[in-house]
Amino acid sequence: MSTLTEAPPPLAPQAPDPRPPKRRGRWTPYWLLLPGILWLIVFFALPMIYQASTSVQTGSLEEGYKVTWHFAAYWDALSAYWPQFVRSVLYAGTATILCLLLGYPLAYLIAFRAGRWRNLIMILVIAPFFTSFLIRTLAWKTILADGGPVVGALNTLHVLDVTNWLGWTAGDRVLATPLAVVCGLTYNFLPFMILPLYTSLERIDGRLHEAAGDLYARPWTTFRKVTFPLSMPGVVSGTLLTFIPAAGDYVNADLLGSTDTRMVGNVIQTQFLRVLDYPTAAALSFILMAAILLMVTLYIRRSGTEDLV
Amino acid sequence: MPFVNWLKRNLVVLAGLLTLGYLLLPNIIVTVFSFNKPKGRFNYEWQQFSLDAWKDPCGVSDLCGSLSVSLQIAFWATLGATLLGTLIAFALVRYRFRARGAVNSLIFLPMAMPEVVMAASLLTLFLNMGAQLGFWTILIAHIMFCLSFVVTAVKARVMSMDPKLEEAARDLYAGPFQTFFRVTLPIAAPGIAAGAMLAFALSFDDFIITNFNAGSTVTFPMFVWGSAQRGTPVQINVIGTAMFVVAVLFVLASMAVGNRRNRQKA
Amino acid sequence: MTNKTDPTGDVRLTGIAKTYGDFTAVHPLDLTVPQGSFFALLGASGCGKTTTLRMIAGLEEPSAGTVHLGDQDVTALPPYKRPVNTVFQSYALFPHLDIFENVAFGLRRRGLKSVRKQVEEMLDLVQLGEQARKKPHQLSGGQQQRVAVARALINHPKVLLLDEPLGALDLKLRRQMQLELKRIQTEVGITFIHVTHDQEEAMTMADTVAVMNAGRVEQLGSPTDLYENPGTTFVANFLGTSNFIEAEVDSKSGDDIVLKAGGGKLVLPEARCSAPASTGGKVLVGVRPEKISLTHADDAGEIPEGRNRITGRIADSSFIGVSTQYVVDSPVCPGFEVYAQNIDRDPRLVPGAEVVLHWNPAHTFGLDAAQSVFDGTEGSAGVEEAA
């Protein structure tokens, strides 16, 4: 087919062309890319530009908005909502660390110790995705209910005293506190940590463990010096896949938290959908995007894993 | 002492199983509470066993309608994203071209962007264009954010495919089209299927982007969100449990078929 | 069945070359492979032999030159329009199709409807009739290799191209398959062009061998010709082992050249010298290790007249079974290798013993002294033989 689109080769014998013949289908990659890339440009890149322009507009719903290069919107947004920004980073960061601590043993278990249970455990990790995450997040309301068994146990073990002192909980409640929000975030994004970890652990040759053992490394040393460094690509992409959505999330803060646990996502949502203050919302969203991109770039630079895609 | 040693050896297993429990606990709660008969409007406290919700899953107004909207959007979004994403994946793996880096970034960025940012900016675009928010704007948004995940899944598969197989096909008298449909596509199929399943799950479960761009259309996650404010019907748990069971059965069945096929051939 | 004089099966490469940017994989090359022959392209990895093969198959477009099959210029034809089939390195069997469908693939693509009989016959020929419904990954390496051959041969190509077809097999199976391929080639009479890095494989199977190095054909000829009379140190080292002595041309007597090396004289038939030999000029004198006899210095008088001789001291000896391999240090050449058949073992020939090395001058060959004596040794023949 591609030969039809090219000029037909001359039939008369001719001197051999010293240049290599043009590769057939030189345009093929561009045709393959066109529809999808166009889609991303129009519905992903272009909106970013619109949003950037909206963030420097002034006006009102009734009279319409005009670009007035009103950069003060950024300053106003930041000074009004910096606690929400700080909270977002704090909650998402804590959740990411918890995900890594909780997810690593499970990924390790699936990769090296599960044997014939490997597939079953994988299914159990992925299957909850199919129950809407909102329903599952609502279930935490039941689990962490006031006076329920979980809160009771935490109380008996004096864990709540510690978290109260840290300001993570308030009194005998876990619901509507930062702890509940972090717990929900950790839960919701844990599979995004486990899957990349598993992928990079699974690639490790099991004989490396034996070799390390043979070379006088104790199990813990083997882990520290061999397994963990080799799983770094998984740690990096898992951290990003957990932190980014967690920082922008507003569902957990809304369902499990209170007005004191609002994150930046909640503010953007409210400004956009309830208050209809588009410039402020756009500025907030733009700041969040820039902050995340900056962090991602720095993080990837430092950990040296360029090819995450 | 033997117990301590055993504990030392299996510490990682125990920790892993605890995490697995943490992951599954909400699903257990969801399932158990699908048999509840709550007193008030909210289904957060256990009252008494009942099969009412299971007997009448559509008994709440709008619930099954929203489910149907979600399934339709997920279906078309999966189709669109899989088609476009597969084309991109092939272009990336099989061809050299200019602007490769830019294309890679454009694929990567949607995955590295908080949903709320994409949701808000897309809404700005739609508002600026004066687009009518609803089914179509949701579909457009879903195809957009599923695309990158499909590209990643298909790319991995195509990259691990031996390019010699296509050369062998061409050597054995298969033209470009026959080579693609007889060899390339069947071998890439598992990657495409994985990408499609991922797209379906992402689209069906998406809330944040949908919430911004839905207008008055209500998808299933939006219905759940709304009910969290007004009162949660038990039927939500029924649907959630059913989806979970169907997914597990589907995977188990496809694994069983795969195993049997292998055993027959061996 | 075979018609050796029919020119339609000749493969003719004219000035064919391949460059990738600044890198030249194949320098302009002329080569004719006659119909019905078993032709081997031999060389280390990266020497351009596979690129040459791929240009014949149509999988690589030549930067210059033409490919003819008989009288037809196929240079511009895509691979699926060339009457040429390939047995790929590591086979490239389609993993999603069973053995039957793999073998039937080419026939089906050419629109044949009833392929069953042909496929079954072909599978019987390669003794895989029982495995028709298995998937490739369920077969052993040797079986997969036979499927790859069957899949190509069933199309009755004018030329069968084999790209390192035995590389993935273990030594014993490789020997067996070498004979098997040779048998199939004689039976079907198709031209085989075989790319390999294994000199032994090339020599056992091929009628004609082209030794390639750095994108050029170093020498072309029958295996015996290449071995007995190599034209360059590369060929001499790549095919087997050679000893080299740097010598100076002293005089000419009849058909022979007389050379000075160290204190002694060596005789080299002029016909076996590929270098210009003017009196006073330098020549590399080569001799194969198995052509040399070893005599203890005490018995030097018993050596017949007219043989080339060198003195030295045994540095090392290793017993191989059929032969004993000695390394002899001589003033004209350190590390001279000698393979002695284990017929009558002289117990005095141990490391440290003074010996005389002697051989028939007819086994001597002369090369241009301007080249390195190490070409073709490291990383090529040596390593690959170990693999």
Helix-strand blueprint:
The complex is a heterotrimer of chains A (309), B (266) and C (387).
Chain A: H1 2-5, H2 28-55, E1 57-60, E2 64-67, H3 72-113, H4 118-126, H5 133-143, H6 149-156, H7 159-166, H8 178-202, H9 206-214, H10 219-230, H11 232-248, H12 251-256, H13 264-275, H14 278-303
Antiparallel strand pairs in A: 1-2
Chain B: H1 2-33, H2 52-55, H3 63-94, H4 100-111, H5 115-129, H6 135-159, H7 163-171, H8 176-205, H9 208-213, H10 220-230, H11 234-265
Chain C: E1 11-20, E2 23-33, E3 38-42, H1 49-57, E4 64-69, E5 72-73, E6 84-87, H2 99-109, H3 116-125, H4 141-153, E7 159-163, H5 171-188, E8 191-196, H6 199-205, E9 208-213, E10 216-221, H7 223-228, H8 233-238, E11 243-253, E12 256-261, E13 264-269, E14 282-287, E15 293-296, E16 308-319, E17 323-330, E18 333-341, E19 354-359, E20 365-368, H9 377-386
Parallel strand pairs in C: 3-8, 3-9, 6-7, 7-8
Antiparallel strand pairs in C: 1-2, 1-4, 4-5, 9-10, 11-12, 11-14, 12-13, 14-20, 15-19, 16-17, 16-19, 17-18
Written account of the structure:
- The complex is a heterotrimer of chains A (309), B (266) and C (387).
- In chain A, 70% of the residues lie in helices and 3% in strands.
- By secondary structure, chain A is mostly helical.
- Chain A has a single domain (70-303), classed as MetI-like (MetI-like fold), CATH 1.10.3720.
- Chain A is globular and about 75 Å long.
- The model of chain A is unreliable at 1-23 (pLDDT under 50).
- With 266 residues, chain B is mostly helical.
- Chain B is 78% helix and 0% strand.
- Chain B has helices at residues 2-33, 52-55, 63-94, 100-111, 115-129, 135-159, 163-171, 176-205, 208-213, 220-230, 234-265.
- The mean pLDDT of chain B is 89.
- In chain C, helix 2 (99-109) runs parallel beside helix 4.
- Chain C has helices at residues 49-57, 99-109, 116-125, 141-153, 171-188, 199-205, 223-228, 233-238, 377-386; strands spanning 11-20, 23-33, 38-42, 64-69, 72-73, 84-87, 159-163, 191-196, 208-213, 216-221, 243-253, 256-261, 264-269, 282-287, 293-296, 308-319, 323-330, 333-341, 354-359, 365-368.
- Chain C is 23% helix and 34% strand.
- At the A-B interface, helix 2, helix 3, helix 4, helix 5 and helix 8 of A face helix 1, helix 3, helix 4, helix 5 and helix 6 of B.
- Chain A: It is a multi-pass membrane protein.
- Chain A: Residues 1-23 are annotated as: Disordered.
- Chain A: Keywords: Cell membrane, Membrane, Transmembrane, Transmembrane helix, Transport.
